[in-house]
Amino acid sequence: MKKDCIIVRGGRANNLKNVDIDIPKQKIVVFTGVSGSGKSSLVFDTLAAEVGRQMNELFSAFSRARTPQSATPDADVIENLSASAVIDQKRLGGNSRSTVGTITDLYAMLRMLFSRVGEPYIGYSNAFSFNHPRGCCPECGGVGHIIEVDESKMLDREKSLNSGAILFPTFAVGGYYWKSFTCSGFFDNDKPLKDYDDAEWNQLLYGKGKFDTVRGGIPLVGNFEGVIERFTRMFIQKGTSEISTSTREKIEQYIRYAPCTACGGSRLNPEALSCKVGGLNIAQMSEMEISRLIPVLDGLEGAVAKQIAGRILARLRYLERVGLGYLTLSRPTSTLSGGESQRVKLVKHLGSSLTDMLYIFDEPTIGLHERDIGKIRQLFVELRNMGNSVLIVEHDPAVIEMADHVVDMGPLAGEKGGQVVFQGTLAGLKSSGTVTGEHLSRRFPLNTAPKKPTGFLPLRGCSTHNLKNLDVDIPTGVFTAVTGVAGSGKTSLIMGELLKTHPEAVVVDQSAVGLSSRSNPATYTGVMDDVRKLFAKESGVSAALFSFNSKGACPDCQGLGFIYTELAFLETVRTLCEECHGRRFKAEVLEYKYKGYDIAQVLDMTVREALGLFADQPSLRKKLAVLAEVGLDYLTLGQPLGSLSGGECQRVKLAQQLHKKAQLYILDEPTTGLHMADTGRLLELIHGLRDKGNTVVVIEHNLDVIKSADWIIDLGPEGGGGGGELLFSGTPADMAERGVGATAECLRGNGPA
């Protein structure tokens, strides 16, 4: 048996077609191929999943029952694996107490530094923790801000409880929570709130206790919570990671944030803030950008201070090397992008003395400027040189070109993918004739004939985050690329300042696609709603009958198509539902047909097939056509979103937004997860929007996209405090000729500077 290779035989996860492959160990191996070709299925759903499963088996049954379970990957043989560290694109998330400092343990090291050499001495490290009663601000509890319910948005005082005085939808008339207010016996439910006396008003908002009353001759006993008291408990006191995106967006309309006046946002009590090292307290150090904190710690005197600071500096310098020098340790993890989250997770593994590890990366260059890709490439080399195996799923040519070994998946996506179409050296890939090989050396030309702006959207005095009182004119009627190194202020300018003045814009941002087992392309894009209405109209029954989330769901599996059985300490087993055979609907629902097809058969159709079936339905066809335009015509309408690749999810999101009518479109790094071949298709879509007279603004690092723009707005020169300045505004040709800064240099050389 070969011990210098990871061996896979008969890999069948998702779209893999009995893949047999030997992957060399202690090498940098890059897996590439078009989006949906099977890269992630092989690397994450097969290799990483098997490592996780085997590592989990090492724990006792008691421990396994309390840790996430990994199913056995669908493969005949997987051998010669090492212990792994998986650094994926999942956002770190976390609640309001989780920061860059806490997630990297850097804040714990800072607390140790202050507890040992800080003056005046105030106690052990917990005295500096905003997550401990000893150190946190007593007013805000260590979160740094106060969240208040906006009474004017929550309640309409002109109305009574019965007529809809409570404006928050969850507490609306007729609902469970509304009944807890109206059935309490504390209020005249027909009395306008403006006529409440102080006692009634306070009871409605903040009351707590039990009620014992009679209503309609029926005795009622229960617990009472006022409107604001209940809202605070249900939503405000929970961390953002515990609340769904849709719910979070809903509650944001009814609350307001105010800095804590007691601690000024520092999260700590006065005693903790009184202790200083080098003239700074721990909050001041945490609020410094990493690139500026490094020289401060490097200049500390004393043996103890130098020893502790040395450990902190090593990790800070790694953060700087991966392009995150603009972050602060106080930055909440919930505000980090997927690319930033991945690089923060990467830093936790750097500096380890472990060898023969298996490091698995998922598109580590996401969010990185071309200039900074060279830095992260060097980190991969260091990991390999320590005797580790480095597996990277990547589309960026700069990373593919550094590989010791390349595995190209394809030939296309979905059912037409799932095969190893090439395996070998970079030179071999370039001459292989695969889609990746053909596009690897292909570069888009500089746009020398840009479309002229029809006007400008003026932005004046922009000062969000690190923007330095910028005056910028956004051209209209053209395709504008907003560029600059990570942290230079691109998102602050566009998602902050421009969107604030033009809230009507259609936005495709980097927020995650909902990946519940019930989500699929049809439900996410709104296609399912139209399909259900068509079936209802054709059959003369309720549209709810054609939803596997509602009345039409199979009673045995609740519309999931599978039965999940928990086996105590063993893995949860998923079996096909014997009642519906995976079709998710009741048998009687499938008796209703549209043009000879039942609802389950429609969901099994590809986008391409559905376009033919619904050719006479303009609204439906429009939504389906956008899915086809972004290159997803091979997806089935009912395919779970959780089985899609990162690039496919990004394009589903594009399709969901871009069928909407607007005059201003804002896209935040739309090439995330896209193969080089898919970038051309994206540019066709962007140019199509522009040619219809729309304004398209794209935040992007991809040089092919930047070179294809009509106009470039470049910010910099660095990230964080070193950025926020306007370096250039004009055409790509002008920027290549006379632009300054990292983006201009890359544009001229078409590679990392």
Q: Care to count the β-strands?
A: 23
Oligomerization state: single chain
Weakly predicted, low-confidence segments? none
Radius of gyration: 28 Å
Average pLDDT reading: 89
Instruction: Give a short account of the largest sheet.
Output: 6 strands, mixed
Helix/sheet category? alpha/beta
Ends: how far apart? 44 Å
Strand residue percentage: 15-25%
Q: Count of helical segments? A: 29
Shape: globular
How do the strands line up in the largest sheet?
5-10-11-3-12-13
Proportion of helical residues: 25-40%
SSE order and pairing:
Elements: E1 5-11, E2 19-24, E3 28-32, H1 39-57, H2 61-64, E4 77-79, E5 84-87, H3 100-103, H4 106-117, E6 145-149, H5 151-154, H6 176-182, H7 198-206, E7 208-215, E8 218-225, H8 227-236, H9 245-252, E9 255-259, H10 270-274, H11 282-286, H12 290-298, H13 303-321, H14 338-349, E10 358-362, H15 370-385, E11 389-393, H16 397-400, E12 405-410, E13 419-424, H17 426-430, H18 435-440, E14 455-462, E15 470-476, E16 479-483, H19 490-501, E17 506-508, H20 521-525, H21 527-539, E18 562-565, E19 573-576, H22 599-603, H23 607-613, H24 618-629, H25 646-658, E20 664-668, H26 676-691, E21 695-699, H27 703-708, E22 711-716, E23 725-730, H28 732-738, H29 742-749
Parallel strand pairs: 3-11, 3-12, 5-10, 10-11, 16-21, 16-22, 17-20, 20-21
Antiparallel strand pairs: 1-2, 1-4, 6-9, 7-8, 12-13, 14-15, 18-19, 22-23
Helix pairs in contact: 4-13, 12-13, 23-24, 24-25, 28-29
Short synopsis of the structure:
This protein is α/β, with parallel strands linked by helices and 753 residues long. It is built from 29 helices and 23 strands.
